[in-house]
Amino acid sequence: MSATRSPPDPAIQVLERLGDGSARIGVIGLGYVGLALASEFAGKFETLGFEIDVKRVDAISAGRSYIGDVDSSLLAQLVRSGRFRASDDMTQLADCDCVVICVPTPLGQSRRPDLSYILAATRQICAQLHRGQLVVLESTTYPGTTDEVLLPSFEAMGLKLDEDFLLAFSPERVDPGNKDYRIPDIPLRFMPRSCARSIRCPRRAWQRLRSFGKTRSAR
Ligand SMILES: NC(=O)c1ccc[n+]([C@@H]2O[C@H](COP(=O)([O-])OP(=O)(O)OC[C@H]3O[C@@H](n4cnc5c(N)ncnc54)[C@H](O)[C@@H]3O)[C@@H](O)[C@H]2O)c1
């Protein structure tokens, strides 16, 4: 008699899709960090960029980079090939397996990061969040933001961390202008909250996830 295997949780399935390259990545905020990351991801995955500034969406669609670190000819090639496109239509977040938040966090009063952009992005994600998504916070913020701000908002949608969706944090993968510190060189830093589940993650997924980040240090 053969043992019946239960299907993997949706949260594990997203890691499998990252492992085999079939995941679709969404990047919210296409500034210095977001456009550089999105161009990098687009080399491996179909990537959608979400940006509220329509002029930036138009520039990307025309293959024109407005960020020094991102070469226009590479961008144009990614756009032409259909691997990367930009939009201000946030409903398309529903089509993404992995959503990366790269919105600004200017210092506000009392020199704490102003979370209003992260809160807006969180609302955009909540409106489209579904089982089997990984959300990565790349914006620089104070420790606790992932656990105290993002997680409760997502759980309020009736989804469970590590079973239905995954959450990660990575504040320092892009150093604008620094040619010696490049996104692919940065060691693996992503870690789901539950280590037990991460062990079930396919090895290839971990290799792909080198370009994602970890959640623990900034929780
Ligand atoms: N992860 C890293 O490696 C790393 C490195 C340096 C800085 N950062 C942090 O990344 C964040 C972004 O920095 P940046 O320099 O790219 O900022 P930026 O101002 O250059 O770009 C942010 C972009 O987000 C867009 N935006 C704002 N709200 C949005 C929303 N709700 N939906 C869609 N788009 C939205 C803006 O129009 C802008 O184009 C900051 O918190 C910064 O401190 C991260």
Blueprint of the fold:
Layout: H1 10-20, E1 24-28, H2 32-42, E2 46-50, H3 54-61, H4 72-80, E3 84-87, E4 98-101, H5 116-126, E5 133-137, H6 145-155, E6 165-169, H7 195-199, H8 203-208
Parallel strand pairs: 1-2, 1-4, 2-3, 4-5, 5-6
Helix pairs in contact: 5-6
The protein binds nicotinamide-adenine-dinucleotide.
Tags for this model:
single chain, 219 residues, alpha/beta, 8 helices, binds nicotinamide-adenine-dinucleotide
Termini separation comes to 45 Å
Number of strands: 6
Helix/strand order, N-terminal first: HEHEHHEEHEHEHH
Strand content bin: 5-15%
Major sheet summary line:
6 strands, parallel
Going across the biggest sheet, name each strand in turn. 3-2-1-4-5-6
Structural class determined from secondary elements: alpha/beta
Stretches where pLDDT is under 50 for at least 5 consecutive residues are 186-192, 194-200, 210-219
Average residue pLDDT:
81
What is bound: which ligands? nicotinamide-adenine-dinucleotide
Determine the number of helices (DSSP H or I, runs of at least 4 residues).
8
**C-alpha geometry:** globular
Cα radius of gyration in angstroms: 17 Å
Helix content: 25-40%
